[in-house]
Specification:
The chain is an alpha/beta fold. It is 62% helix and 9% strand. The chain has a six-stranded mixed β-sheet, sandwiched between helices. Strands 2-1-4-5 form a four-stranded antiparallel β-sheet, with helices on one face. A hairpin with a 2-residue loop joins strand 4 (413-418) and strand 5. The longest helix is centred in the N-terminal third of the chain and has 49 residues, at 71-119. It is elongated. It is found in: Cell inner membrane. Its main location: membrane.
Length: 601
């Protein structure tokens, strides 16, 4: 099980020239919260000023208050140092509260934006993208940015302010010692940039590997995946495949955490050794006749220099984190930049009363410009309340034809109309109200029966649920369950049989009461007895509705007003059941094939 690339993964890494644009996009995420961020900035500034003032108080204590025995001044200066510590702590708590709240709101906005974008993507996108990859983008990538958006930005401002304020204070105390302290700073900055670039590359690889592993888990640990693995005797093979994916992730995690560790360790050692260098420089200056440095000035300077150490190292680490996070932001922006294939028109048409006439007018469809047409020159009219059955061999374009009506795909030529209006001109709400789809693969949420039914109509009453279930011939079975309509259906509805799930899907569609119904091989996977029960439910659902049936078993379409036979994306035959049998063409051959496949008992 090797990971499949998706379109986003085929996008090359952002070039250095794109970085300013990417940074601007990140800053745009914080624009709605600039008022709160301004408050954070004020708190950061106030905290930095208070921190810088403390060493000056210490200098006065050592140089003036203690030598001169001024107890009152000593008490006042000591109280000032205590008050400074209290204010710094209070400012820090408030700063953390506001910045974390802003960061979490930004993450919420990102998650919602990505999810909303994916909801608007066409069906084609999801047919070529692994579900686990999509989940990984929302969970792992956005989750991996949590530290950046909640604390890194504030940490950057806070540390930068502290560094600037501290350097200014150091210059005010003694410019010569300040020059000695800052000689190696450019080297440290260069090292941190190298480490950041290295970690960014590793992070991109790590997130792709996490997405691949998430996709493997999603596919192989679903109910269907477990059934397939067990029945094919591949459980051990799948476990080994997952172990291989995990092993690759182990290597990337180790590389990510160790990238630049030795270089950053050197920075830490040098910064920790700086007080000794300061004492040495002060001694040498005095020894060779330079201006003397008082004990208070020296202690205050070393205190500032040590205070400079923490924010400087933190600032360098923050720079590394930001470069690492750029890889995560890039992956998220790839999804936000995905082109929307199916969009609502600028001035959508809304139909209040829907009759249900459906027309295919010289319809052509292909998945991409270079691909062969899946459908071409399709001209079909289904009157309001009428029924159309579409049959043909596998791959003839039957399901695609049905999916054009609710705009799961858009035509690439011609048009599909509902009540004379091109479906591309209708608003999405009208399409959702007008068209119901019952497919062969019924999807049920891991929730109660009632919740699954109410997905179609959230405000449905219990009486409406029961009426829909009775029409779909599933009410008696639901009522016989220990928890009735509160029974949890299980993952993908696996606590119910195929026929029961289909009838639940039909009840859900009955609850919506759409005037146009698309039945996409809704009974092809069922046994004959179950098919008859489901077909009775479908007949109840189809009454007085415009119905398009995509059929595999021809026994379900004999009563259709019109039957169309597709072959290689074209209409090969059309007519009623009797008319097509009389032509003794493709349809008659399909009927004879079905007759041979029907069970004799």
């Amino acid at each position: 099980m090797r990971p499949h690339d998706i379109e986003g993964d085929r996008t090359p890494p952002a070039a250095e020239s794109d970085r300013p644009r990417q940074v601007r996009r990140i800053l745009e995420l914080f624009r709605p919260y600039r008022g709160r961020l301004a408050v954070v900035g004020l708190l950061v500034g106030a905290s930095s000023l208070v921190s810088v003032a403390t060493p000056f108080l210490l200098k006065e204590i050592l140089d003036t208050a203690i030598p001169e025995g001024r107890t009152g001044l000593l008490s006042l200066l000591a109280l000032g140092m205590i008050l400074g510590a209290v204010l710094t702590s209070v400012f820090g708590v408030l700063q953390t509260l506001i910045s974390t709240t802003v960061g979490q709101r930004v993450m919420h906005d990102l998650r919602t934006a990505v999810y909303g974008r994916l909801q608007r993507m066409s069906l084609a996108f999801f047919t070529r993208t692994r579900t686990g990859e999509v989940q990984s983008r929302i969970a792992n990538d956005i989750g991996g940015m949590q530290a950046t958006v909640t604390s890194t930005a504030t940490s950057l401002v806070s540390n930068l302010t502290s560094v600037v304020a501290t350097i200014v204070a150091m210059v005010a105390l003694d410019w010569r010692l300040t020059v000695v302290s800052l000689l190696l700073l450019p080297v440290f900055v260069w090292i941190s940039r190298r480490v950041g670039n290295e970690r960014k590359k590793i992070t991109t690889q790590r997130q792709k590997q996490m997405a691949a592993m998430a996709a493997t888990v999603t596919e192989s640990l679903s109910v269907s995946g477990i059934l397939l693995g067990r029945t094919m005797g591949r459980a051990d093979s799948l476990t080994q495949s997952f172990a291989d994916e995990s092993e690759r992730l182990v290597g990337l995690e180790v590389r990510s955490n160790m990238a630049g560790r030795w270089r950053m360790a050197v920075i830490t050692v040098v910064m920790a050794a700086m007080p000794a260098v300061i004492y040495w420089a002060a001694g040498v200056t005095s020894r060779f006749g330079g201006p003397g440095i008082s004990i208070g000035t020296l202690v205050a300077f070393v205190s500032l220099q040590q205070g400079l150490f923490r924010p400087t190292v933190s600032l360098l680490s923050t720079g590394v984190q930001i470069q690492t996070s750029l890889a995560l932001f890039q992956r998220i922006f790839e999804y936000l930049d995905l082109p929307i294939d199916i969009t609502e028109p600028a001035r959508p048409v809304r139909l209040d009363r829907i009759k249900g006439e459906v027309r295919f007018e010289d319809v052509e469809f292909r998945y991409d410009d270079k691909g062969a047409p899946i459908l071409e020159h399709i001209d079909i009219t289904v009157p309001a309340g009428g029924s159309l059955a579409v049959v043909g061999p596998t791959g003839s374009g039957k399901s695609t034809l049905g999916y054009l009506v609710p705009r799961l795909y858009d035509v690439t030529g011609g048009r599909v109309t509902l009540d004379g209006v091109d479906v591309r001109d209708l608003d999405f709400d009208t399409l959702a109200r007008a068209i119901g789809v019952v497919s062969q693969e019924t999807y049920l949420f891991h929730a109660s029966v009632a919740d699954n039914l109410r997905f179609a109509k959230p405000d449905a009453t219990d009486e409406e649920l029961h009426a829909a279930a009775k029409a779909a011939q599933i009410h008696d079975h639901i009522a016989s369950l220990p928890d009735g309509y509160d029974t949890v259906v299980g993952e993908r509805g696996h606590r119910f049989s195929g026929g029961e799930k289909q009838r639940l899907a039909i009840a859900r569609t009955i609850l919506r009461d759409p005037p146009v119904l698309i039945l996409d091989e809704a009974t092809s996977a069922l046994d004959t007895r179950t098919e008859r029960a489901v077909q009775e439910a479908i007949d109840a659902l189809s009454a007085d509705r415009t119905t398009l049936t995509i059929a595999h078993r021809l026994s379900t379409v004999r009563g259709a007003d019109q039957i169309v036979v597709l072959d290689a994306g074209r209409v090969a035959e059309r007519g009623t059941h009797e008319e097509l049998l009389g032509q003794d063409g493709r349809y008659a051959a399909l009927v004879r094939r079905d007759a041979r496949l029907e069970p004799t008992t």
